[in-house]
Design goal:
Elements (H helix, E strand, L loop, with lengths): L2 H30 L13 H9 L2 H26 L2 H7 L4 H43 L1 H4 L6 E5 L2 E9 L3 E9 L5 E15 L2 E15 L6 E11 L1 H4 L14 H5 L6 H5 L1 H13 L2 H14 L10 H24 L6 H22 L7 H17 L7
Antiparallel strand pairs: 1-2, 2-3, 3-4, 4-5, 5-6
Helix pairs in contact: 1-3, 1-5, 3-5, 3-11, 5-11, 11-12, 11-13, 12-13
Length: about 400
């Protein structure tokens, strides 16, 4: 690469990294706030909270990377245009297609990043997240005994905890056990803790009362206790068997799935849609780069407005991505939908390259601009403001 190519690639990738980190951080925070109950109602540590929520970051990067690349290319082209560098390069004999080459280098880097994340990193993170979530949901203290809720552990077993105090102490415990058809047991305890050992998980109740209503007897048997162990082993062992979904499968597992896999037999359409989504993920950066450069990369004087081109490039990229999402959904039931999506992507890249090679400047027609100006003037009059000349 020459000095100009290095300068453009460095500027584009730096902008890409800044935009990617910023957007991923903002979206990650909004998603992480939904899981804040890991620390509050479920009593997990801040490290567990950060670990669980950060495993979803590769999936966010996979979606955000093409958009971040589009913004980075737009920023770089706008910077070059503002400093009149595109005009100077064009006057020195640098064609728009030659100027597009360093952006292709930057796009290749982003596409490789997306391909690696789609093939391995994102599904591996989802697998770790599912295993970690299974361990958390298997914890009776974290999942079942949530303060202020009547937890229906079984068809005839209900437990309620008033609050959780520091140190894992549970206060205000109520248990209604009707599993034995010959009797009903109601337990009220002042406080208790969950203890796990080789024998299983037990809810150790302290300072409480037990009422046993036996069939055929009019009066209940009441027992006051200082310490009572209630077996919770049956419920704390849930969630140990982890079954990976389609998004948790690696790329090679989607290419050659086990035909005996029950998930493959039940959801063949979703396997097909997910496989093509993984293949198409590295193509979106090329499509976005070609469309963005086609609208913004041609030389313009400082008197020519770039607002229309910026808006049109955003609309084109947004429309392409929305069409891709719609076709991905349709691919679950239609085998032709992925083919249409491939044609749409390669068609967008081809149109973008044709516009770049031909050096076509995409600008609104004079009639359209005149209609927009009349509409703006009419709107200003309705708002009671004088229209500017």
């Amino acid at each position: 690469m020459g000095s100009i190519d290095k300068y453009i690639v460095r500027t584009t990738l730096t902008s890409f990294a800044v935009v990617l980190i910023s957007l991923t951080g903002v979206i990650w925070i909004t998603q992480a706030l939904r899981g804040i109950d890991l620390m509050t109602s479920q009593g997990q540590t801040i490290l567990t909270f950060l670990g669980v929520t950060s495993l979803a970051i590769p999936v966010l990067i996979l979606i955000i990377s093409p958009i971040a690349l589009m913004i980075a290319i737009s920023h770089t082209l706008n910077k070059l245009a503002t400093d009149s560098e595109i005009i100077v390069m064009n006057a020195a004999g640098l064609s728009p297609f030659r100027l597009f080459r360093p952006f292709v280098y930057a796009t290749v880097v982003v596409a490789l990043l997306v391909a690696v994340i789609a093939a391995y990193i994102a599904p591996d993170g989802m697998r770790r997240l599912k295993r970690w979530d299974a361990e958390i949901t298997a914890d009776v203290l974290a999942n079942i005994l949530q303060p202020g809720r009547f937890a229906q552990l079984d068809s005839n077993l209900t437990i309620r905890v008033r609050e959780r105090q520091p140190g894992g102490l549970l206060a205000g415990i109520f248990i209604d056990d009707r599993r034995d058809p010959k009797e009903r047991v109601s337990i009220i305890a002042d406080h208790g803790t969950v203890v796990k050992n080789d024998s299983g998980s037990f809810l150790i109740l302290e300072d409480g009362n037990l009422e046993r209503f036996e069939t055929g007897k009019r009066e209940p048997a009441m027992v006051a206790f200082d310490r009572y162990a209630f077996d919770m082993s049956k419920f704390s062992n849930r969630g140990h068997d982890v079954v990976y979904g389609i998004r948790e499968r690696y790329l090679w597992e989607l290419i050659d799935p086990d035909p005996k896999d029950p998930l493959v037999q039940q959801l063949p359409g979703q396997f097909r849609a997910e496989l093509h989504d993984r293949f198409m993920a590295p193509l979106y950066p090329f499509a976005f780069a070609a469309l963005t450069f086609a609208f913004l990369g041609t030389p313009r004087t400082t008197r020519q407005s770039r607002n229309f081109s910026i808006g049109a490039s955003i609309a084109a990229v947004f429309g392409l991505r929305m069409a891709g999402f719609a076709l991905s959904v349709m691919a679950v039931k239609s085998a032709m939908a992925p083919l249409v999506q491939y044609l749409l992507l390669f068609g967008s890249i081809s149109v973008g390259l044709w516009l770049i090679i031909a050096g076509i400047v995409i600008e609104p027609s004079a009639a359209l601009m005149e209609a927009v100006n009349r509409s703006n003037a009419r709107l200003l009059r309705l708002l009671g403001r004088p229209a500017t000349a």
